[in-house]
Write a structure and sequence with these properties.
300 residues, 2 domains
């Protein structure tokens, strides 16, 4: 059992990221990623380090799996949704996309501004903020960490499912390809080229693996979830979390990264995870009991 669990953990790390070289089918890569966290729970007795490792392995799975639809861009392009968020956002913006309205009011027509730079940094910070929030919860009140990690993981996992089900183009892509009447620039790119210099192409390729993973906005959704979880642990930390979340929401629209529709969907996703917790709790407890029995067997 330990050998099998160890092999599953190793496969969850290697197979998704090496899927092209291994010529693994999408279903195989996804199954390998899903099997990793429960296999680790069987392999190692529960400790703080194991809980952190489970969450890290879960996030590794998300990072690699959400890129899989774009492994075949032509097939994904046939299912790509472009028009519905444009129609909704134009209605919300009273006839004009909020992205375009904000950029026309605040952006320079050619050069990055101080606002562009500040909001780009806010955007880049997202790669750490939700996870640093969980680290804070772990250090402040360890008893809250498992539930917080489950809710954050569920937010990412359900968002990933929607990326597969409803591939949606972001506003900058729609504008670049002539689908919008308004101009929407990807302002962050100009800032990134100045800040990161020669390293920018590598960073862009590493973190931009699926440009059509826009609905819902997990940037906004995961940050909102982090703020809610922080607020349950510490009011001051919660206020900081909400301040970051709504600043990020503004940045995502202004920089041309997301429609307001995407942000609303991210918030709805968080609400669904939070409200669905009670419905899913019996299943979670049942799975935990099975994993605990297997862990006792595997570790004598």
């Amino acid at each position: 059992m330990r050998l099998g669990a160890g092999a599953a953990v190793a496969a969850s790390i290697v197979v998704p990221v090496m899927r092209r070289k291994l010529r693994a089918k999408p279903a195989v890569s996804i199954a390998a990623a899903i099997a990793g966290p429960p296999a680790l729970a069987v392999l190692r007795p529960r400790t703080r380090k194991r809980d952190v490792a489970l969450y890290a392995l879960q996030m590794w799975g998300f990072m690699t799996v959400h890129e899989i639809p774009y492994d075949d861009p032509e097939a994904l392009r046939k299912r790509l949704r472009i028009h519905y968020p444009i129609k909704i956002d134009r209605w919300l913006g009273r006839g004009e996309l909020p992205n375009s309205r904000l950029q026309r009011a605040l952006a320079h027509p050619e050069n990055p501004t101080a606002l562009d730079r500040a909001l780009s940094v806010v955007h880049w910070a997202w790669f750490l903020v939700p996870h640093l929030a969980l680290l804070y919860i772990l250090l402040r009140d360890e008893s809250r960490f498992p539930r917080a990690a489950r809710q954050m993981s569920a937010t990412y996992d359900l968002g990933c499912f929607l990326y597969f089900a409803v591939p949606t183009a972001p506003p900058w892509w729609a504008a670049e390809n002539g689908y919008t009447e308004e101009e929407v620039r990807r302002l962050m790119l100009d800032v990134a080229k100045d800040v990161w210099g020669p390293a920018f192409p590598f960073l862009y390729d590493s973190f931009g693996g699926n440009p059509w993973a826009a609905f819902p906005s997990l940037h906004f959704g995961s940050s909102l979830m982090a703020a809610l979880l922080l607020a349950e642990t510490d009011k001051v930390a919660g206020l900081a979390g909400f301040a970051y979340t709504f600043t990020l929401g503004f940045a995502l629209v202004y920089l041309g990264e997301h429609y307001v529709t995407d942000l609303a969907a991210g918030a709805a996703l968080v609400a669904a995870v939070r409200r669905g917790e009670r419905l899913g709790e019996p299943t979670v407890l049942a799975v935990n009991r099975v994993l605990q029995r297997l862990e006792r067997i595997a570790n004598g």
